[in-house]
Amino acid sequence: MRITLPPPKPCPECGSDPVYHKAEYAVHLMNMLTTPLFDLPLRLVNRALDARRKRHKYSGWYERFERLGLGEFHDTPDDKTLLLCQVLWEEARARGIQMREFRFLGLATNSFVATLPGGRRITFESIPFPPGTQEGVWWLDSKATMKKRFLKLGLPVAKGGSAFTLAGAKKIFSTIGKPVIVKPFEGSASRHTTIHIYKQTALERAFKIAKQVSPNVIIEEELKGSVYRPTLVDGKLIATIRRDPPRVVGDGTHTTAELIEIANKHPARQGPYFSHIKMTPVGEAELKLQNVTLDSIPEKGRAINLHQKINWSVGGTTTDVTDDVHPDNKVLFEEIAKVLHAPIVGIDFIIEDISKSWKEQEKCGVIECNGRPFFDNHHLPFEGEPHNVAGVIWDLYTA
Questions:
Q1: Is residue 241 part of a domain?
Q2: Does residue 359 lie in a domain region?
Q3: Is residue 349 part of a domain?
């Protein structure tokens, strides 16, 4: 008999990858209270676990759980497997590495056992980190702590702060430029995040949305430009994409509605990754901000955004810009990876033009960093050349 849990309830603020709100809140609360205090002990535990991995014993827990009916192994990926794990799995097969996913209580916890050529077994969550390395500093996924430390180092970040109460959020809101963005305290993959906030009433609503999954909420100045995702492995910039919300570009002939219909015919939007653009109340509000309607005929070259978020599930797209990154920006990204002590890191960076130095552009900066980045974006760009980040990661591990 297998024990399983029901999937999380659908949530418009979570998008296509919903989470258990109460569990997410509890985890963030625990991290907020304990991580700074137990940073050193946690590192010592991680080192001990690395030692167990080297002795090939750590994965034995999974076999014990399986015998107790608390979980099971999967030898092939399915629709519950994270896309980044799917591309890792595909690259592993090409290298003669056997990967198996263990699911505790039927949940896709992204726990894996891999057998390398020669028989050595390793265990990992989502991404295989080389034995002896850490995932980075404890505050890597903490937006508020990261902001404070980056400011001291002269690294560009958005102005703002974090608040536990609505009164605290309003105080921060009153001291920074508008518009602002409100999001959960820790990395959330755009879940429960609200942008384009000018008024206090909108702030109150956004605060409640973020508070559903996080005890502390970030309120910060909205930077200017597109969201770029440089991914670094072993301190080196491997690939960079630009992440765009669903948008259409005017041609001076077609209405907004007609442009959406044309955009939805793009081959990449026919599945399985990129979605059709669908008009929702959020999209209608976005059009209103731009003084555009579905019946308007946007002038040639004008970009019309159709949603606040940039996720694939709402029609967002990605474009590879690896070859366009200015040398100053590359140096900045690699310096950030060095500061974070992270063997693998994804940086969300907002800037108007990635081909120009960040030093010459206003209101640009880091909005968050992730020690377990969704690098599958680089394997499957909507436009541009793919980059095999999974291969670079396996090279790092098996070297």
A1: no
A2: no
A3: no
Tally the domains of the chain: 3
- Whole-number Å distance between alpha carbons of 113 and 117: 13
Q: How many CB atoms are located within 10 Å of the residue 150 CB?
A: 18
pLDDT higher at 63 or 290: 290
Cβ neighbours around 142 below 10 Å, total: 25
Specify the higher pLDDT residue, 112 or 7.
112
- Exposed/middle/buried for residue 281 (C-beta within 10 Å: 0-12, 13-18, 19+): exposed
Produce one character per residue of 233-259: b if its CB has 16 or more CB atoms within 10 Å, e if not. Answer: bbbebbbbbbbbbbbbebeeeebbeeb
Please report the DSSP string for 13-46 in residue order: TTTTS---HHHHHHHHHHHHHHTTTSHHHHHHHH
Compute how many other C-beta atoms are within 10 angstroms of the C-beta atom of residue 273.
Answer: 16
Helix (H, G, I), strand (E, B) or coil at 229: strand
**pTM of the predicted model, to two decimals?**
0.80
Q: Are residues 18 and 166 in the same domain?
A: yes
* Together in a domain, 210 and 256: no
pLDDT at 5: 66
| pLDDT single digits (tens) 292-316 | 999 999 999 999 999 988 888 889 9
Within a domain: 376: no
Q: In sequence order, which residues have a C-beta less than 8 Å from that of residue 314 and are 6 or more positions away?
A: 15, 245, 246, 275, 278, 280, 307
Residues forming a β-bridge with 27:
none
3 state SS of 264: coil
Q: Based on the fold, state whether residues 14 and 93 are members of the same structural domain.
A: no
Which of 307, 323, 346 represents a domain boundary (last residue)? 307
pLDDT bin (cut points 50, 70, 90) of residue 3 is low
Q: How does DSSP assign 309-347, residue by residue?
A: ---GGGT-EEEE-GGG--HHHHHHHHHHHHHHT-SEEEE
- Same domain, yes or no, for 56 and 23? no
Asked which of 81, 101, 125 is the last residue of a domain, the reply is 125
Q: Which residues does residue 226 pair with via DSSP β-bridges, in sequence order?
A: 351
DSSP H helices, the chain, are 21-34, 39-54, 60-67, 83-94, 143-153, 166-175, 200-211, 256-263, 281-289, 327-340, 376-379, 389-398
Q: What is the CA radius of gyration of the chain?
A: 22
Residues 16 and 42 in one domain: no
What share of residues in the chain are helix, strand, coil (percent, to 5)? 35, 20, 45
Tell me which residue range forms the domain holding 290: 246-307
Number of helices (H) and strands (E) in the chain: give both, helices first.
12, 15
